[in-house]
Amino acid sequence: MGKKKQGQPAGVQFGDNSQEDDGRQAEANQEMQQTASNAPPTLADMEKLLKSTEDRIIAKLSIQLSANRVIIDRHEQTIQEVETKWSNHMETRLTTLESTCSALTKENEALRLKTDDLENRSRRNNIRITGLPEKVEGSQLNSFIEVFLKETFGATAEAFPTPPVVDRAHRIATPRKRQDDPPRPFIAWMHHFQTKERILTSSAREAGSLSFRGTEVHIYPDYSAEVSKKRAAYFTVKSQLRNARFTYRMFFPAKLQVTDKHGQKLTLPSPGEVSTFLANNLPGTSLTPTASS
Question: Where is the composition biased (Polar residues) (predicted)?
Answer without folding.
Answer: 27-40
